[in-house]
Amino acid sequence: MAYTQPVWLGGWMTDARVVLVTVPDEAVGVSLVTTLLEADLVACGNLISGVRSIYRWEGKICDDAEHLLILKTTAAALAGVKAMVVERHPYDCPEVIALPVTDGHSGYLEWIDQNVVSPEKP
Fold it and tell me: How far apart are CA 28 and CA 97, in angstroms?
């Protein structure tokens, strides 16, 4: 079951999430982040180049150069982020892993919340 409850951070309730997504090249990464930003599903996306992924796929060990997206969003917007990434990603089975934010600068966490429109928020 997915964790969706806000975490109490000494006076600040956060449902912030960091989402990791690997992509095959910079162009795909930029396109995904831009699309997610335009849809108000993320507040920010970082694109890290030079990632080497070693993984098992269809019974074989693969070793590929990739790029990593680090997306900042909220628990409420997570379903929309996942759906959009899966729909627009060139991989058959894209990595979309969400991590709860358990601590952080309250101003930054508030900025994430203010810049993501979720189904409950107009």
Answer: 18
Q: Output the DSSP codes for 8-25.
A: E-SS-EE-EEEEEEEESS
Q: What's the total number of domains in the chain?
A: 1
Residue 26 lies in a domain: yes
Q: How far apart are alpha carbons 76 and 5 in whole angstroms?
A: 10
Evaluate whether 114 touches 15 at the Cβ level (below 8 Å).
no
64 found inside a domain:
yes
Report d(CA 37, CA 43) in Å as an integer: 7
| Residues spanned by the domain of 21 | 13-114
Would you say residue 50 lies in a domain?
Answer: yes
Per DSSP, 85 falls in state H
In this prediction, residue 14 carries a pLDDT of 76
The pTM assigned to this predicted structure is 0.87
Question: Token pair of 26, please?
Answer: 């910079």
- Mean per-residue pLDDT pooled into runs of 10, the chain (122 residues): 47 82 98 98 98 97 98 97 98 97 90 86 52
Q: What is the pLDDT of residue 120?
A: 62
